[in-house]
Amino acid sequence: MKPKLKRFFIFPLIGLLFLVTACGRGTSENELKVMLGSTVVTLDTAHMQDSYSFEVVADCIDGLMQLDEKGNAIPAIAESFEVSADGKEYTFHLRDAKWSNGDPVTAHDFVFAWRRHCKIADEYSFIFDSTVACIKNAEAVIKGADPSTLGVTAKDDKTLVVSLDAPVSFFPALMSFPSFYPINEKFYNSVKEGSYGTSPDTFISNGAFTLDSYIPGTANIALKKNESYWDANRVSLNMLRYQVVSSSDNALTAFKNGTLQVVKIAGEQVEHIKSDSELSKQLSFIPEGSLYYIAFNQDPKNHHGGVLANVNMRLAITNAIDRNSLVKNYLMDGSLPTYTAVPQKFSANVKTGKFFSENQDRYKDYVSFNLEKAREHLDKAKKELNRDEFNIHLLYSNDSGDRITKIVQAVKSQLEANLPGLTVTLQPVPKAEYLRNFSTDNFDIAVANWSPDYDDPMTFLNLWTTSNAKSTEYWSSAEYDKIISDCSTDNLAINYDARWDAMYKAEKILFEQAVIAPLFTNTNVILTSPKVSGIEYHTAGVDRVFKSAKVK
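Request: output the structure for the sequence above.
Response:
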């Protein structure tokens, strides 16, 4: 999915007092108070990049489809749909639904939003193109062609026709993802340019909740039930209140005193909670399906002499990281050490039932914890670069949870201890600055993560194509691009086994070239009040859904 580029408080007592005060006032019956791991920068679906923003907007807007509690695609705004025999055309029939300002939701709202998204061509525009949704002419529009040529048309107010370049097996589920949500064009044009999605006055809903209070980047977001929602009978919550908490200690304190009813905690607190007979009953481990990894800026002209454009330097780094120690001694939350570009326990083969990354030794010749191999590559890098010492900066978001701080400190310690001559300088910045630096390649190495947008390995593998340059950090491979492109053409799209094998071939190229250094597959440790039920957790798409949540 989406980078969840997931803080520590300088003044934890002040932060805690603010938390108690902010969540304690203005409460109402039947409201749910939930911890959010990071601030929400925007509610404009054409610009958002992180899973927390996706979650909040999904509370407020329905797409064509939604996912049920098992992750299966079911109707939302689209009451039904048909697909052509060749799998290249979908016709969606829209139900009677309204925006929160009373306007009907129409097929034109989807056409406007999709054309706008591709025209803006921001971080997530790739999801429309031939590596994911395969919507006809998406790549051309993203590159500047007339948006009206995009393969989406409103046959009438209630009929949306989508044309694809190739069949996409997971297309219905993909339609539940926020990038494909509609926007009311008339309302969008009525607000000041650049202000859409920045306040309750500049944002409208067609989903379960409406925006009650929101200022971009602040710690509190309040949503209230949308009484005009087409499925309002399903929604029992009157209010959904989010509070950004960046300290796990503060989160646990807030949970114990009832200020928050759903929180995520750090792994080192698990044993303490398990020893508490009451708290232990409220503890759960939720697989997230996201991959944390080290991204390398391979720009040969970057400000540190382009040392990371050297493949041996990258191979030295990826083989010098003890991932088992990382998850056991620092995370302690059930996260899994990972040596693949697709996370563990994600995307099962429909024929064998085995997950795509079942074999974690598949690429052990290229990615492992092997000090002998790491130092061999380092020696080669020193000779090729004619240098014996290196100082590289490790970029990370310092307002996205204290576990990130532990991760970067552990990685720094391991790399400096295991690679003589290498110094790692930590570069903590706020989330918004992190996203800006990461997307413009203004870094050396960075701790990043990606959560799956849909249940297929391609949600990870397409990140490193040349066309998705904001994720490749100057790396490019014509062979890799062709394999990924072939996986979206008619032949491979309909030949399941051949497509699966091709994706493994592509993944191998990533590790031969050390394009990334995978770290771990994330698991969330959640505390949930016994009064709360009905929250849905998904490993692909939007992480949490509160439409069926209840508070006793």
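The chain has two domains: 12-242+529-551, 288-522.
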